[in-house]
Amino acid sequence: MNQILEVVNSVSSWLWGLPLISLLAVTGIYLTVRLGFFQFRYPIYMFKQTFGSVFKKPKGEGTVTPLQALTSALSATVGAANIVGVPAAIMFGGPGAIFWMWIIALIGMSIKFSESVLAVRFREKKENGEYVGGPMYYMTKGLKMKWLGVWFAFALMIELIPSIMVQGNAVSAAVNETFQLSPLLTGIVIALIVSLIVFGGIKRIGKVTEVIVPIMAFFYVGAAVIILLMNLDQVPYVLNLIFSNAFSSMAPVGGFAGAAIGEIIRWGFARGLYSNEAGLGTAPIAHAAAQTDHPVRQGFWAVMGIVIDTLIICTATAFVVLSSGVWTREGAIDNSASLTTEAFNYYFGSIGSYLVSISLIFFVISTVVVIIFYGVKQAEFLFGHKTGEMMKFVYLGSIIIGSIGGAKIIWQFLDLALAAILIPNIIAVLLLSNEVKRLKDEFFTSDQYYLKDIKK
């Protein structure tokens, strides 16, 4: 068994190195060019159509508001990757990795936009009035490849079991370290809280995430902004660290072992893609349920998801870690996961540790709530409503098993399972890029949409 796990880890490490990062980067560049660099040409317009319209009645049909769809999608992406993953990128790729994280975020916007546009374009309205969509629907209806949709749906449904276990373990470890509570008790309590939300469907999930996500982001980013204001003199230093080390190898500094240029780019790209999940095909499942009058308008909300997740929250973490200097302490590379906690602790004392732990707890709970919804939708697509309801209990049980570190052996297969989802989704998005371009051109040249909006 150990030999099998070694092979799995070797294959996973190789696959999630140059092959998949190159695939995502090339796809992002291709779609950015194909769609006329829209994310660079219309940023102010997109902001007005998203956050600038939150108090207006949504246009068109759907199950949840566009904001609720975004906060649901963000719930699944904003989490441990933003708090734990960013310092890992700094420790293994150096401060320059943050520059490449920003670059892949800007490029990845075209992938996330395309996924969400296709999800709305090929969504379906169920008998209960709920709108559903995502890769399995645009593969089936857009590409006429139901087998590919079945592949995606089954792979995602299964992949979420170890994924939820890992999330359950992360939150129980954080609670145990900060509040000394039993991991089993934490797992049971988290499962009960999650069950109250997921059994209410996407409408209840949307209402909960609409409140939780802005609050948790406000407190976490707000604390980072306070640190920024307290240390404005550190801003030039941090920016210099990031930009001066983005294009050349970096020498060792204290506990930082140094990094070659290839590692700097790889870690930056990997962290950006892991945090916002562009290309994975999960966020479109949430965006498909949104009230909208055109698929492209909801695509703008998907782009805003990357702005919040990677450009704001990950950057906030990076500033706190780099300005505090904890990344250069002896032994930092051996415990990169705790660097964010140490950085906040450096500035705020024990209150900083509590802030990071509580943020992580809320991030993980909201993540689990939404990815259970994703898994249930895959089960419904494959086997019907009853199987979807049964999978809720499987996923809730996974939280408890994961909280006590159970079934760790299957966690090793997580990266391979993610690749089994990502590859077919990227293929589908590329094959349907003509449809994305057609819809984008339709939106920006029609008197019903863009031209009408800018005349107001």
TrEMBL record:
A Pfam family this chain is assigned to: Na_Ala_symp
Membrane in keyword set: yes
GO MF term (any one): amino acid:sodium symporter activity
Parts of the chain that traverse the membrane: 14-37, 69-92, 98-120, 147-166, 178-199, 211-232, 238-261, 300-327, 347-373, 393-410, 416-433
Location in or out of the cell: Cell membrane
A single GO cellular-component term on record: plasma membrane
Keywords: Cell membrane, Membrane, Symport, Transmembrane, Transmembrane helix, Transport
Topological relation to the membrane, as annotated: Multi-pass membrane protein
Chain segments annotated as coiled-coil in the UniProt record: none
Family assignment from sequence similarity: Belongs to the alanine or glycine:cation symporter (AGCS) (TC 2.A.25) family.
Protein name: Sodium:alanine symporter family protein
